[in-house]
């Protein structure tokens, strides 16, 4: 960034420390109340343990000073040892058992994130700002040490430090207020100075990240099997080693600079500790000489001064940690509260009925992607009649897929409206609207589950007879019947070792079976055969045409020959419908569609050899 460029203002979190803490307490109260009770118990156990450790030595020393009987001295020692043992045992038991509730609360928040991901309006799944919040949200719930679980340790420690601070303040109140003020001032100053110095690494995290990123990149690339041949053929090893070594030297220089800064934190801490302890020693020794302060009380007060410092530091550190964790929790809340541009449960219900007709109209529709300078589609009008087979064709980037997403209700137009039987689809429950569609897109949602589950898109109440019928209609029955586990065969090998890999054509037929199983009144195919050769693509499209009789079908392809069977073809160019009609009518017009068809047909003829033509 140039110096004259203005920095973007830093985005402030929507919620503050107190609001985020209240949010987590509310979540725990709803999911597992014991998390809150156990936090309180842990805090008071920690304070009780500290007080027992504080008094054990002074009390024993006081017994020795007063020459109590041996049995009383031994009894006192046994009492404190037993007390510390009991407190430690209870604390360990509570710490172990509180873990389960904390995990449950965190997983409950994770489930809310997953629900949001799977139900949020489609534009949110492509919005970079929303996706960034999602990424941070997932980080905040991905482990035991992340904010949504670690906050309970922070709250328990903070409560412990506050209670301990109050008790020690009462204990030290009999001493000179100047001594208490010195302890407070030196502790607070030391904390903030050390915090500022120790944050040097955080302020320079981008620089450190760059070094780590470069070194990790070189290491990963060097280990990739795909690069192994290039390393040997082109002699890349010295180059990769030099790239790694030069970055490592810069990283080592960065670490050296950081440690030189950090050493000042240690120096300042030592100086302030000497000052604080020196004043405390001087004051207590003076009291011992002038007022006859017993050794046991001297030990008690001096230990309390050190403990008082620990409580103050703990409170400051606790609030600092709570603020940092609150930033992550705020991101989680902001993602969960991401506004929904579509209506769902609060929209009009839309029931799919057998033998009903569904007519879709795009009226004066324009759509522009966020950040784009011009519309992808502009003032487009289109009527899709019930039961019609419509093909959408055009060059790459013409807006075919955008048009399909508008038809399916994934996008809403920035101008105009999409109508279902004359009603704007914005008014409907969008999930009900989606239920009218079955689709096969360019990117397949093939899951590593059983073949039957992929067809039914469910693991519950699968109609295996219907699965078999759909697979048979899709032309995949011979393949399935040849498999040992048939419909229970696992797809893919990332999850199951016995899984199988399907070829491109077999996957296409499986997707057709899935579309048939849903039996939706509207079927959309968005260039799902782009990876196949033209002959295989034509065969698949003819199979789709045969199996989807009676349904409203929308076919998208950049290969014009594959959609000749459709009732109507629209040619998209410059964000609108440039040509429209049957294949024969468009060929007779002799315009862009006919020109592209002739160009493509030269290459798509089965068995042709262009070299021989030449």
Description:
- The structure is a single chain.
- By secondary structure, the chain is α/β, with parallel strands linked by helices.
- The chain has 21 helices and 10 strands.
- Among the domains are: 17-336, Up-down Bundle (ABC transporter transmembrane region fold); 452-519, no CATH class.
- The strands form 2 sheets. A 6-stranded mixed beta sheet has the order 6-7-8-3-9-10, sandwiched between helices.
- Helix 6 packs antiparallel against helix 10 (237-291).
- The protein is elongated and about 115 Å long.
- Residues 1-8 and 606-614 have low confidence and may be disordered.
For the structure shown, list the relevant keywords:
614 residues, ABC transporter transmembrane region fold, four-stranded antiparallel beta sheet, 61% helix, 9% strand, elongated, disordered N terminus
Condensed summary:
Helices cover 61% and strands 9% of the residues. The chain has 614 residues and is an alpha/beta fold. A hairpin with a 2-residue loop joins strand 9 and strand 10.
């Amino acid at each position: 960034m140039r110096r004259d460029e203005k920095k973007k203002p830093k985005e402030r979190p929507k919620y503050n420390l107190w609001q985020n803490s209240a949010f987590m307490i509310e979540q725990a109260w709803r999911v597992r109340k014991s998390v809150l009770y156990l936090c309180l118990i842990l805090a008071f156990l920690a304070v009780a343990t500290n007080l027992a450790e504080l008094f054990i030595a002074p009390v024993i020393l006081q017994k020795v000073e007063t020459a109590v009987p041996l049995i009383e001295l031994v009894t006192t020692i046994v009492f404190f040892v037993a007390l510390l043992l009991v407190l430690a045992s209870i604390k360990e038991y509570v710490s172990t058992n509180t873990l389960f509730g904390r995990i449950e609360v965190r997983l409950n928040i994770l489930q809310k994130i997953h629900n949001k991901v799977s139900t949020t309006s489609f534009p949110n799944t492509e919005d970079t700002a929303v996706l960034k919040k999602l990424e941070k949200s997932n980080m905040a719930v991905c482990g035991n040490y992340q904010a949504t679980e670690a906050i309970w340790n922070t709250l328990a420690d903070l409560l412990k430090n506050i209670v301990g601070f109050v008790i020690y303040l009462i204990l030290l109140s009999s001493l000179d207020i100047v001594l208490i003020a010195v302890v407070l001032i030196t502790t607070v100053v030391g904390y903030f100075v050390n915090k500022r110095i120790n944050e040097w690494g955080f302020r320079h995290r981008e620089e450190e990240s760059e070094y780590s990123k470069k070194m990790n990149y070189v290491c990963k690339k060097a280990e990739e099997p795909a690069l192994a041949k290039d390393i040997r053929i082109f002699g890349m090893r010295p180059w990769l080693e030099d790239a790694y070594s030069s970055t490592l030297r810069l990283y080592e220089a960065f670490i050296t600079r950081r440690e030189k800064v950090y050493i000042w934190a240690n120096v300042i801490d030592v100086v302030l500790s000497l000052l604080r302890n020196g004043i405390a020693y001087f004051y207590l020794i003076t009291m011992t000489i002038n007022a006859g302060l017993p050794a046991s009380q001297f030990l008690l007060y001096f230990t309390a001064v050190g403990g008082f410092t620990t409580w103050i530091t703990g409170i400051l550190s606790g609030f600092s940690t709570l603020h940092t964790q609150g930033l992550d929790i705020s991101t989680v809340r902001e993602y969960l509260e991401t506004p929904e541009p579509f209506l769902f449960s609060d929209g009009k219900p839309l029931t799919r009925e057998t033998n009903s007709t569904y007519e879709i109209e795009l009226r004066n529709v324009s759509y522009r992607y966020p950040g784009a300078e011009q519309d992808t589609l502009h003032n487009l009008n289109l009527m899709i009649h019930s039961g019609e087979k419509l093909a959408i064709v055009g060059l790459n980037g013409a807006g075919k897929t955008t048009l399909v997403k508008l038809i399916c209700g994934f996008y809403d137009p920035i101008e105009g409206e999409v109508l279902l039987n004359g009603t704007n689809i914005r008014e409907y429950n969008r999930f009900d609207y989606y239920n009218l569609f079955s689709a096969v897109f360019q990117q397949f949602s093939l899951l590593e589950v059983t073949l039957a589950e992929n067809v039914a898109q469910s693991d519950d109440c699968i109609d295996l007879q219907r699965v078999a019928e759909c697979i048979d209609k899709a032309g995949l029955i011979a393949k399935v019947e040849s498999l040992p586990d048939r419909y229970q065969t696992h797809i893919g090998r990332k999850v199951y070792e016995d899984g199988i890999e399907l070829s491109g054509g077999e996957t296409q037929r499986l997707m057709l079976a899935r579309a048939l199983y849903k039996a939706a009144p509207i079927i959309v195919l968005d260039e799902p055969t782009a990876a196949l050769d033209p002959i295989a693509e034509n065969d698949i499209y003819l199979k789709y045409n045969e199996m989807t009789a009676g349904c409203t079908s929308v076919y998208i392809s950049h290969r014009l020959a594959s959609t000749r069977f459709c009732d109507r073809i629209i040619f998209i160019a410059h964000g609108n419908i440039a040509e429209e009609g049957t294949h024969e009518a468009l060929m007779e017009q002799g315009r862009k569609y006919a020109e592209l068809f002739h160009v493509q047909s030269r290459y798509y003829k089965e068995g042709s050899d262009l070299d021989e033509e030449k």
